[in-house]
Specification:
heterodimer; A: mainly beta; four-stranded antiparallel β-sheet; globular; B: mainly beta; six-stranded mixed β-sheet; 0% helix
């Protein structure tokens, strides 16, 4: 596998279910991100991890719980979601969050299409 | 407040025609600017980026963009569009402050290419 991978690619869940999204990066990066992409809205940054430490929580409801066990893996645990949480959830990684280096761009995974019934 | 505006939600061009996608930003200093492309069912792929220097930036797939400070714009161009360019295009600003990046994305422009 290369780049950033996400599983599952599609997920349908009820409002009372608990599920998890997984992201893995094979780029040797130290920063990982969760974004939410809804129709007709800009990408919304949800969480940022740098060297496994959470550095950003963009006022995300507690029904979304991230976990970063190491620099290569990022999870998003989902619990009692609402229908308005249906969206494409994108994971991204970059070298880190503090470098002003020209190459510190973000690489995105293909996303998980989540539908909450 | 920092923001990115992509005024065109949809654009349709014929194959072989030229393309320009507009992006305007609001930011207090010179930003880092990016264009990403998203094909159906895929994540975002970086087309090009501007940090400093030459204001005309070359990217992948034959795309280029020009940074115009006076107009707060970073428009994406391609001289001859191919059918495979049909996708959604996102402009992003990467303010770097307080020791961290925080990308701000536009709402995207969906490109349709007619054969």
């Amino acid at each position: 596998e290369t780049g950033v991978t996400q599983t599952p690619r599609h997920l349908v869940m009820g409002m009372t279910n608990k599920k998890s999204l997984k992201c893995e990066q094979h780029l040797g990066h130290n920063a990982m991100y969760w974004y939410k992409q809804s129709a007709k809205k800009p990408l919304e940054l949800m969480f940022v991890y740098n060297f496994k430490e959470q550095t950003e929580n963009n006022s995300v409801p507690s029904r979304f719980s991230p976990e970063c066990p190491n620099s290569s893996h990022l999870f998003l645990h989902l619990h009692t979601l609402q229908p308005e949480d249906s969206a494409l959830y994108l994971c991204a990684s970059s070298q880190d969050i503090t470098s002003g280096d020209l190459d510190n761009e973000q690489f995105f995974g293909p996303g998980t299409r989540l539908t909450v019934l | 407040a920092q923001s990115v505006t992509q005024p065109d939600i949809h654009i349709t061009v014929s194959e072989g025609a030229s393309l320009e996608l507009r992006c305007n930003y609001s930011y207090g200093a010179t930003p880092y600017l990016f264009w990403y492309v998203q094909s159906p069912g895929q994540g975002l792929q970086l087309l090009l980026k501007y940090f400093s220097g030459d204001t005309l930036v070359q990217g992948i797939k034959g795309f280029e963009a020009e940074f115009k400070r006076s107009q707060s714009s970073f428009n994406l161009r391609k001289p001859s569009v191919h059918w495979s360019d049909a996708a959604e295009y996102f402009c992003a600003v990467g303010p770097y402050s307080s020791g961290t990046y925080k990308y701000i994305f536009g709402t995207g422009t969906r490109l349709k290419v007619l054969a």
